[in-house]
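Morning - zinc ion inputs below, output right after.
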Amino acid sequence: MATKSQPATRIRTCHACGRQYEYPLKGNSATRHHCEDCVEVPEHLRRVAERLFARVQTLETALKRIENKLAGN
Ligand SMILES: [Zn+2]
């Protein structure tokens, strides 16, 4: 009865580039953490990309905080 033929696809965010992608998709090589483009990247470079992306996110959060502060005053 409870046949699970196809897992529901979800929108995921790539840990290396921040791109949003659907996972899992048939015929797509994307993994849980990386989009189909970043899956192709050698692991040591992907780790660098992940580090840089983490910094971008930190900066975006800080920028948003500043923007909200400016808009609120
Ligand atoms: Zn990616």
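Note: The chain has one domain: 10-72.

O.
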